[in-house]
Amino acid sequence: MPTDPRKRAFLRIAAASALGATALAGCGRKDEAGAPAAAPVAAPPAAAGPLKAAWIYVGPVGNAGWSFAHDQGRLAVQAAFGDRVATSFVESVPEGADTERVLRDLIGQGHTLIFGTSFGFMEAMVKLAQEHPQVRFEHATGYKTAPNLNVYDSRFYQDTYLAGIIAGHMTQSGTLGYVGSVPIPEVLRNINAFTLGAQSVKPQIRTRVVWINSWYDPPKETEAAQSLINAGADVLLQNTDSPAVIQAADKAGKLAFGWDSDMSAHGGAAHLASCIADWSHYYKKAVQAALDGSWKGGQVTRWGVPEGQNDLIKLSEKIPAEVRAQVEAIKAKMKDGSFDVFTGPVVDVAGKERLAAGQRADDAWMGAIDFFVKGVEGQIPASK
């Protein structure tokens, strides 16, 4: 994956009792499922004094997007537990050797609970978990676990489907645009869910995809958004981390959705709603378990709309009332389990049935998605 152009990172201490630290720089991130979980094992009892918990982020925290959303979760932990915890973070951490170096530095400072918020951090976390059994590790969007390493994830495709319903009603051209980051199952799920949501309103809708092969690259995100607009897309969504796509849509007089966090303040008249992940629920649960001694490794947790981890928020007043009602009705069905986004028949662009009629996809199926559903236009490049 290309390295983030921003080359500086800062370790910031959020609790008064936290110690000073160093930092590193770079880029990275995300997905997928497949490996069996390790047997749950209780972690060692916590040391005296506040629990030292650290987060490592793939990009700058900024004021919107992926890393910002995770940092909001960290701040919620600090607010909830007060002086029982000392939280810190390192932003813009690159994959590979630098990830390992950042983790070693945090462990050396006495952190005993570490959250890694990028798929690309997985191998370093697995390695350090083996070397430091006294440290609890939590990895976002990965699939490898260990006796002291858990995986946690969000079902982004649920709120993405809801956004698709709105897009289906609001498009005038019948062509939607999607700025893709990297071609892994998580991103393909979201593209397909967005398209299926829109097609539930207008079956002939098409979604055009442009890839930038990066999670955070505002200039490339802007360029991709403009190319989609030039190709006729009038409602855009993204799987990238900055507000660049929605800002490009606003400048062009088109419509778009915020991603990962509330982007209503960044999107101007373009903002239809924001697909968000609220990580605070999981972070507070994990920290509470570490504090009371009930934390166990070898766990995989995937939460979504039913658990309040994913949502579609800040719906624009320009969305008709009946469309808002439709979105709320589907959201309610997601919450009570009567509706799943990926329920067959699901057919790919070549006309091949990928999920039989009436069949609900499980996590293994969703973790292996390597296709576009019918109606998506664009190529799926080889994943690096």
Per-chain topology:
Blueprint: E1 11-13, E2 51-56, H1 66-81, E3 85-90, H2 97-108, E4 113-116, H3 122-131, E5 136-140, E6 149-154, H4 156-170, E7 175-180, H5 185-199, E8 206-211, H6 218-230, E9 235-238, H7 244-251, E10 255-260, H8 264-267, E11 271-277, H9 280-292, E12 300-303, E13 310-313, H10 321-336, E14 346-347, E15 353-355, H11 363-366, E16 376-377
Parallel strand pairs: 2-3, 2-4, 4-5, 5-6, 6-12, 7-8, 7-9, 8-16, 9-10, 10-11
Antiparallel strand pairs: 1-3, 11-13, 14-15
Outline the structure in words:
- With 384 residues, the chain is α/β, with parallel strands linked by helices.
- The chain folds into two domains: 174 residues, Response regulator (Rossmann fold), CATH 3.40.50.2300; 189 residues, Response regulator (Rossmann fold, 3-Layer(aba) Sandwich), CATH 3.40.50.
- The chain is 33% helix and 19% strand.
- It contains eleven helices and 16 strands.
- A seven-stranded mixed beta sheet has the order 1-3-2-4-5-6-12, sandwiched between helices. It has a seven-stranded mixed beta sheet with strand order 13-11-10-9-7-8-16, with helices on both faces. It has a two-stranded antiparallel sheet with strand order 14-15.
- The longest helix is centred in the first third of the chain and has 16 residues.
- The radius of gyration is 20 Å and the shape is globular.
- Tell me the CATH superfamily of the largest domain: Response regulator
What pattern of helices and strands is seen along the backbone?
EEHEHEHEEHEHEHEHEHEHEEHEEHE
Unreliable parts = 1-46
Give the second-level CATH assignment, the architecture of the largest domain.
3-Layer(aba) Sandwich
Give the tally of structural domains.
2
Q: Which sequence of strands runs across the widest sheet?
A: 1-3-2-4-5-6-12
Gap from first CA to last CA: 7 Å
**What is the overall silhouette?**
globular
